[in-house]
Amino acid sequence: MDKHREYMRLALAEAYKSPPKPTNFRVGALIVDEAGDKVLATGYTLELPGNTHAEQCCLQKLIEVDGQGTEAEAEAEAVLQDLPEKTVLYTTMEPCSKRLSDNAPCVDRILRTRRGVNGGIKTVYVGVWEPDKFVEHNHGRQRLEANGVSVVHVPGLEEEILTVATTGHVQGRSN
After folding, report:
1. Do residues 85 and 113 lie in contact, with contact meaning Cβ atoms separated by under 8 Å?
2. pLDDT at 173
3. Of these residues, 47, 55, 94, 130, which one is catalytic?
4. Does residue 64 have an active-site annotation?
5. Crossing angle for the helix pair 54-65 and 2-17, to the nearest 10 degrees
6. CB neighbours (10 Å) of residue 44?
7. CA 77 to CA 64: how far, in whole Å?
8. Are the C-beta atoms of 92 and 11 separated by less than 8 Å?
């Protein structure tokens, strides 16, 4: 579990970069080639233009890192379907299954990688489960597991992750 905690700490370092806002959780994420022990992409909430989530930023940056540099849907899908065989995702908070903005939920984005020749992202490591603050009853874990993606909790950093995630929120108020 030490390697997982080390990667979760890297994801948490990404979360610290996210600007505090009352309407977002500050989340960090990494896409890792587990076989090669190599970080393929990093991301954090609001890193890229739009109301972007950490997992979304990782996937978008991965497309650019792979030399595509374009947002053309077909090319983007091709890159995401050619991920290394042991690709995993580390995220400080459970991926969302519903968005209040027009962006696709992170779970849908993760599941799209599963169409690839190597099976895409097969495991998602999470630091905490998403609180019911913005969207009640996030079903991210259930949807991922129902579609063959393992979801594994990495314990030990929950308090720090939640402190970082909620920085900028109005305390004592529910949205």
Report:
1. no
2. 47
3. 55
4. no
5. 100
6. 25
7. 12
8. yes
